[in-house]
Structures are given as structure tokens and as C-alpha cells.
Amino acid sequence: MQALLAAILGASALGCGTYFPVNKPLEFWDPERGYRAAELPARDDSDELLLMLALSGGGTRAAAFAYGVLEELWATRVTFDGADRSLIDEVDAVSGVSGGSFTAAYLGLRGRRIFDDFEERMLRREMQGGLLVRLLWPLNWLKLFSPYWARSDLAADYYDEVLFDHATFGDLEGSGGPFVSIHATDLVTGSPFAFTQDQFDYLCSDLSSYPISRAVAASSAVPLLLSPITLRNYSDCGFEPPAWVSAQREWRRELDREYVNGRNLLTYVDSGRRYVRLVDGVVSDNLGVRGPFEAWVQRQQQPASRPAGNPVRRFVLVVVNAQTTPDAEWERADVLPSLGFILDAATSAQVNRYNFETIELLRRTFDHWNETTERWDPPLRFELIETSFLDVEDDAERAYLNRLSTSLQLPDEAIDRLRSAARRALRTSPRFEALLRELHGR
User: Fold this and answer.
1) From CA 266, how far away is CA 202, in angstroms rounded?
2) Which is nearest to 392 in space by CA: 360, 428, 356?
3) Complete DSSP assignment for 240-258
4) What Cα–Cα distance (Å) separates residue 15 from each residue in 147, 182, 206, 366?
5) For residue 388, which of 204, 281, 321, 342 is within the disulfide window of CB 3.0 to 4.6 Å?
6) Once rounded to an integer, what is the mean pLDDT over residues 384-395?
7) What is the model's pTM?
């Protein structure tokens, strides 16, 4: 009995002392070190094509739909520099939110080896059942009573064990895979929070030692169901915010996009926030593109001519959107919908509307950029390709996919149909077909 009590108390102490805080401080700020897209080693792919993927939220439904898109990219062959290549090897960067963050992180960590075991380790695993077993395990009860260890910490440990093998962002630096950006939501500001060193600079924290599993747990920490993931803000490494952010200290433009984004970032530096609480990335951006895209737009000015040494001819962003729409069957009945249906419909309406606005923002910006870059010699073309359940041509299949729940556990049939639907949706996309014709006709 004494041995059992010692084991339980030891587990509780481990929960308090080890798990919080996990992010380590930076000894000194160096803008040229850490997990940043600009600092990664050159990859063995074409410099002419810059291919980026954005994988939306939606639980295992989103993870499987994204995986199907990766399978289609794997099967698509293109020729660059006289060599026949798979398009999956041309992916330079991938962002992920919530369910999509599992696929994004695993792609960055494993590259094309994702096709060896991601199905078995994640898509066909009973994730929710595994989490429930961990929750009911008596040794975890005392840890959960600790104010420093909660449900999302338990989830992060589970993902670490069954999927990510204790890998950190430092492992991503040398993996040779695409640059990965996992997105959560800052609970105080409501703004997107990206797990990149550029974001961690504001906390004077070292991302390289941070577990990938905890970033994924933060990105998928559904409010109320799961607890926030906590980061420590150190703010004592000599970090200086970029000029466009620092400039917002002198302005008061409450309805200005640049002002709001800059002021949100300055809260990490100026407000004395010791801790940052992160929840599901879907709350701020279900597509995983708006936060980094807006920051990028604010920092970049499109030059009138092609910059020297820039070989890129095509910038392609593929948005993989696994959103669903509320079932209209209730509108044909004279009974009130359930509380669960009302909550799901209200949440879906907000997410879908924000997704629409984000896609429109991307399209308008790309069109504006193309007006300038088409005059470059040689020209640069910005392309946006969106694939979603709306691109599934068969009405019955689209209705089936739309009814799938946002959970971390789906039957094998659903996984297979999601993958197949994603492959067909991308393959038959007019914009994707046009891109392939241009690539083959270079």
C-alpha cells in the first residue's frame, strides 16, 4: 500500500513539476536562428514553384480529407529541371488547424513517409477511446487535480506517445520536410497564434525544444471540452518587435486591420502577460491562413520588378477545407431542434462565414498582386486552389460526408470515403487542372 501511495504522489508531483511550464526561455534573441521558414536548409525541389498547403480544422474528418489531398499530390507527376517528380515533394510549407494540424505536423516530420503509417497510427486509431482510457486511469486523477496539469496536457502526452514519438520542433528543422505552421488561438486577444519561432520571439521562448504534440494539442483544444494549453512569457531576451508592430504604439485606429494585429502582438511585450493560454485554432481561423497571411501582407511591399535572384515562377496555395453545413432537414419538421443541433448549427454558421471572408480576402489580394507581377520578366503568378466537400460531384456522397461528426474517431468506411472524395475533388478542380497543364507545357 505504501508503494502504491508513493507512486501516486510521485505521479502527481511529476504533473506539477515537469509539465508546466514546458516552453523554455531564450538565452538571447537571434533573428537568424530557430524554426523559421527563412532559416531552414535548402530542399531538393524546384525553385520555380512555391507550393503551400493549408489544412483546415474538423477532427479526424479534416485529417483524413487532408490526407486524401496528399495522396493525390503523391500520385501527380511533374517535370522540373529535367527530372520527373512527385508533386508531394514540391510542397514547401504546410499550415494546420485542429484536426488538420495532425496531418500537417506528421507531413513535416516524416515527409513522404507519412504514407507508411499515418493511416494506422492516427486515422484508424480510436483516438477518443484512448483519451477516455487515459482520463479514467486512477494515476491521472491526482495530476488532473493539479492547477498546472489539465485535460489538454493529458491529450498532449497521449499524442506524444502514439503518434509523434516525443519529437520537438528542433526535429522538424532537420527533417527535410516542408515548413510546418501549427495554429491555435490566443484566449485573451482572440487572435491566431502560430507555433513558429517568429511568434515565440514575442515570448522570448525557444520553440526548438517544444514538443510537437503540445502544439497539436493546443490547436485542437476545443473550448470547454478540453483545457487551454499554457505557455510562459519570459520577455527578457532583448527581442525587438518589427517596425510595423512597434509603430502601432503611436496610433489609435481601432478599426484598422494593421493596428489591431500589431496591438495584439504588443500585448506579449508591453502588457506584462506572464502566461499565454491557447485554445482551438478554429476559434480564430478554421483555415489556418488568415493570421500569417495578414502579417505577411503588412510586412511586404510588392516591388515593381522582379527582385534579383528570385527564381519563383508560380506561388500556389492549396486550401483544404473540411467544413460542413448544417442539415436542413429540421426546416421540414414542426418540432424544435435539439440543443446539440442548435449549438452545432450556430458554430458552423460562424466558421463557414469566416471561411468565406478569408477565401475572398485571399482572392482579392492574389488578383492585386498578379496585376503587378505579370509584368515581371519572367512573370510570377499567384494561384489559389480551394478544395472542399462542395467539390464532391455526387449528391449522395456529398451529403454523407457533410453528416460526419467533428470528432477524433470515425469508422473505417468514413476514412476511406473521405480520402477518395478528397482525391477526386482535387483531381477534377479546374484550377488544379489548369496548373498541371501550365507545368507540363513549360
Assistant:
1) 8
2) 428
3) ---HHHHGGGG---TT-HH
4) 10, 25, 21, 47
5) 321
6) 91
7) 0.89
